[in-house]
Specification:
Layout (H helix, E strand, L loop, with lengths): L2 H17 L12 H5 L6 H5 L3 E5 L11 E7 L12 E8 L5 E5 L5 E19 L2 E5 L4 E5 L2 E5 L3 E5 L4 E4 L3 E19 L8 E2 L28
Antiparallel strand pairs: 1-2, 2-3, 3-11, 4-11, 4-12, 5-6, 5-9, 5-10, 5-11, 7-8
Amino acid sequence: MKRSEVNALINDALLFFAEHHFHLPPWALWSPSEWKGRGDECEEIRENMLGWDISDFGSGNFYKIGLLLFTLRNGKQTRERRSKTYAEKIMLVREGQVTPMHFHWNKMEDIINRGGGELVLKLFASDPADEKNLGNLAFTVSLDGVSRACKPGEIIRLSPGESITLEPYVYHSFWSEKGRTLVGEVSMVNDDASDNCFYEACGRFSSIEEDELAQFCLCNEYPRPA
């Protein structure tokens, strides 16, 4: 991805979040030069990779396969003193833009339609004999506290205000229909380094072509204090 594209996507997301009255913490707007002046007081943000996260999952086409999200809070799976045991994200999911099929070994999560279009999820239970393959077993999910039996490849549609709970080992892919959707995630600790199992191999963090100066830092770009 190009840095100019990253800059434009974040500025567009800021407008979209504002339209839906979703407010980010002040440091969401700090420039790279402002981050250079921040010391150990911001270590929780750096260590837990809070903030802007934009990926095309190695597809080379963000608008077809990609996701923009902002991690508001997170901790560590190896719990340390004072580390949070939960995480929260806000996402902008574009119409027809697919997040690839994946599951988590440890993380249980609620995916919430916070407004805009319709969020569409495709679900499978992973194969107990080979967890990296899609299973052919029926399974159950919770929709706002109401149990629902699902067949392999079940399609779930969430309107604004609706949510789904995804347990570990449940494969899921999602996209938006009827416009862009503001999507929330409330979950156990998020660990992108070791808790994502993608059905098809893909990259998690995109390489950036520096065609212009960065206006913001991505969650894996924060400068360390001097």
